[in-house]
Amino acid sequence: MKALVKDRAEPGLRLMDVPEPAVGPGDVLIKVERTGICGTDLHIRAWDGWARRTISTPLVLGHEFVGVVVRTGPDVQDITPGDRVSGEGHLVCGKCRNCQAGRRHLCRATVGLGVGRDGAFAEYVVLPAANVWVHRVPVDLDVAAIFDPFGNAVHTALSFPLVGEDVLITGAGPIGLMAAAVARHAGARNVVITDISEERLELARKIGVSLALNVGTSTIADGQRQLGLREGFDIGLEMSGRPEAMRDMIANMTHGGRIAMLGLPAEEFAVDWSRIVTSMITVKGIYGREMFETWYAMSVLLEGGLDLAPVITGRYGYRDHEAAFEDAASGRGGKIILDWTD
Fold it and tell me: What CA–CA distance (Å, rounded) separates 293 from 106?
């Protein structure tokens, strides 16, 4: 089968012929239809410091996908050939305290699809049945391909009640944009999103945010004044991993404000802990999705009319992966989709 492979410890990817993955007793073999390109995939392609520390070659990349089940192992129940599915990309041990307590998203032994084991940038992928999400209602294939990052957005956005709240989102990348759409849909009063890319801020305006603020030319305090906010933001969703974004968010929260932080910083940085303490601000780290509560929430949001179409800005055949990755790495658009059906 064809697959996009990090075959050498150097920048770049290769489209190669590799063996079809083996199917174990509890596994599901999936014919991949579409995949989404993630920031993790960009790091691996660039072979940056994180990738050099984390990745063992050769490796088939990819963890955002939708496909059709073609075969199941003998121990698999309730999943049948022909089912359209996406996959939870965090494979957990099932034995640790958190797993046994039903908190699988907190497993310390998590292995990432397309990071710690071969992934979905291929014609076929194998997953344990426990990681397979069957789409029981019709869903657009492009949207189904990005259920993984959509789940990150939903997990982050729904960490705290949103109804009637003023929400600040720092970082208008694809997950920040999806979080903005979720916040609007879930009843936030104002949703403000910040970035320095006018292209991405324009996508946010199409989603319907209250204010898309270019922090290269304006401050978050300017945005507060523009909207008539007098006490700061109730909820903060930090999506950029940028030190200045987190500091500005803390400085513009109301007393008792709550921050969910998904953005992963490249290195340690200082924040105003005195402000966090004296303003009684809650900061919660977010990683991945709750299995599978977040997935239920995603499906229900889509059934309820949530529109993610503006977030998807590029579609390429898998043979055009170089152009697709360049588009994804440009920092100007939203989610980029690879089609594996041609």
Answer: 13
Sign (positive/negative) of CA torsion 213, 219, 225, 229? Answer: positive
Is 63 within any annotated ligand binding site? yes
Q: Is 185 a catalytic residue?
A: no
pTM to 2 decimal places: 0.94
Q: What are the phi and psi torsion angles at 230 (to 5°)?
A: -110, -15
Catalytic residue among 35, 40, 110, 170: 40
Active site residue 194: no
Residue 189 within a domain:
yes
203: containing domain: 155-285
For 335, the 3-state DSSP assignment is: strand
Per-residue pLDDT of 306-320, as tens digits, reads: 999 999 999 999 999
Tokens 């990348």 sit on residue: 173
303 SS3 class: helix
* Burial (CB count within 10 angstroms: exposed 0-12, middle 13-18, buried 19+), residue 34: buried
196 is in an annotated binding site: no
262 is in an annotated binding site: yes
Which helix (H) or strand (E) covers residue 315, if one does?
strand 312-317
> How do residues 69-90 score in pLDDT, each as one tens digit?
999 999 999 999 999 999 999 9
Q: Which helix (H) or strand (E) holds 134?
A: strand 132-134
Q: Tell me, yes or no, whether 297 lies in a domain.
A: no
Among 244, 270, 285, the domain-final residue is 285
Place of tokens 């974004």: 245
**Based on the domain organization, do 44 and 99 belong to the same domain?**
yes
Matching residue, tokens 């307590």 = 101
Query: Within a domain: residue 303?
Result: no
Domain assignment present for 296? no
Q: Total structural domains in the chain? A: 2
64 known member of a binding site:
yes
CA separation (Å) from 122 to 19, 28, 38, 263, 322?
10, 15, 15, 28, 15
Same domain, 314 and 248: no
